[in-house]
Amino acid sequence: MDKKKLALSAMAVLATVSLAACSSNKSSSSKSGTTASVKLSPAYNNTKATDKTATKNSTLKVAEPNDSPFQGISDPVLATNSEDADVFAPGGSNDLWKVDKNYKIVDGGLANQKINRKAKTVTITLRSDAKWSNGSKVTAKDIEYAYEVIANPKTTSQQYSADFNHIKGMAAYHTGKSKTISGITYPDGQKGRTAVIHLDSVTPAMKYSGNSFIWSTVEPYEYIKNVSIAKLASSSQVRKDPLFTGAYKLDKVVEGESTTWSPNKYYYGKTPQIKHISINVVSSNNIDKAIQSGKYDFTVPGSVMHGTDYKQLKNTKNYKLVGQPALSYDYFGFNVGHYDTKSQKNIMDKNSKMANKSLRQAMMYALNLDAVTKKFGYGVTWRANTLIPPIFDKYYDASAKGYPLNIKKANKLLTDAGYKKRNGSKWRSDPNGKKLTIYFGAMTGTSAQAAEYQDYLQQWHKVGLDVQFTGGKTMEMNSFYSTLQSPKQSKIDVYAAAWGLSSEPTPTQLYGEDATYNMGHFVSKKNTELMNKMNNNQAWNDAYRTKAFKNWQEYMNEQAAVAPGSFSYNWGPVNKRVKGFDMSPKNNEFWSSLSLTSSSLK
């Protein structure tokens, strides 16, 4: 159930209704770092007997809550949002690893891993029966080619970060100085089963899936080798007829709407029991009614369901609610620079509109996130206090305060920094006396989310900041991210978004100097130094590594270039005809473990 670091849709931003009653000048709560007030299990222990006829002949109907069509990029190296990962999940995401309950890599997956600290190598050995869904062999070249796609100078992948430069030859390949990656070798040839990755150092993050040093999926090299890497994301091999290594093979894609699946006879693991699976996009306005009327068996594990949905569905007949702390968080980002395409690095612009730290801090103190989450989170969502979610309990800083509402402090920060009301204006101008209009980017979602965004604007207006929607309204998801991911843009100054994280918390891929996901372009020597400490040689000591993570969280909170919004449960409804449902990390056979106790959804 590992996921790469991905951008999330508007569905991931807390849904609320009108907040006029709960927005005020004082925070409703100064407490932060709390957990969900409800208790959910990641598994549904259905003790009914499996109906073999139903399991063989019925279709498992799965919903993907989303307010936009999915992009349709099946390749995890190239996908940029979690919705694509969700609708192609039965294919197994081409993951190499089997993991335990803490996402630590263990033997028994598509491949095994061996870290040699002395030799500074990671050896990846594929199982002898590893095959693609077309029956072709998974090879050592398939392991290596993922790195080529990630680091190619013309790639559309957004997974590259400085962490990959620890692989010998990777930086030279990434900058176009070399046509190959010298640090990846094949002891028994490219068509063999083993790849060895040579590094300048090995790190503790490498013990866990989803880390930003060793990539955790394979690419079907022979199948896609004739497609240029620059055009791979739009190719039929990725969009229409992709290959997978998981329990199911793709039968059909209806662009932006649905995917359908049947068992992959070449799968090495547990034989899948259900013969037909369909995954359909369902809008946030319709998802509750769709579940209540029994149209779907469950929502894709990892997809986003809100507190308002929990309120509507918690007592729904014939459904069981399951959940666990989410590998995600909502956040606010500020545009403070640009991405230099030549150097392939983010550049801070000291003259950018949002460059002043006091302005960013004030905007966060002006928001009443405690009131929002308390009133409308219904126990499954709460105000975030850092940029590391509590599922990483070893590294999460529960003592961090984050940004509780403090209007008085917000006003003082602005005034002291020179953002003052001049000539009788109701709005503050910038320190140079020039008109200040701040443009807020937010994705179109439910009517409830629209009310939340209006509350943000209202709170910012309270402290004298003229904040307006970019373009005068919310933005469609793909347009929103397309704007943010432009190397340089001035349409969005502050934005509300969310991350779907991988199962290892090193944040370099999101906030590193050369991370393409660093959409606000915040860069500092201190930030780089703090992130590097999470995986230096001393970080093999757990106490040292834990302190490094907590120091980074404190620094990022103080800088407020990216500020925490909310944490939540990853939860969903499961129809009581489903058996074998367990979304916990240790269940590496999620899709193949499912069966049905009835032919009909009730």
TrEMBL record:
Signal peptide: 1-20
The keyword Cell inner membrane appears for this protein: no
Alphabetical UniProt keywords: Signal, Transport
Region annotation Disordered: where it falls in the sequence: 49-73
Domain (Solute-binding protein family) ranges: 109-512
Cited Pfam families: SBP_bac_5 (PF00496)
Family note: Belongs to the bacterial solute-binding protein 5 family.
Full protein name: Oligopeptide ABC transporter substrate-binding protein
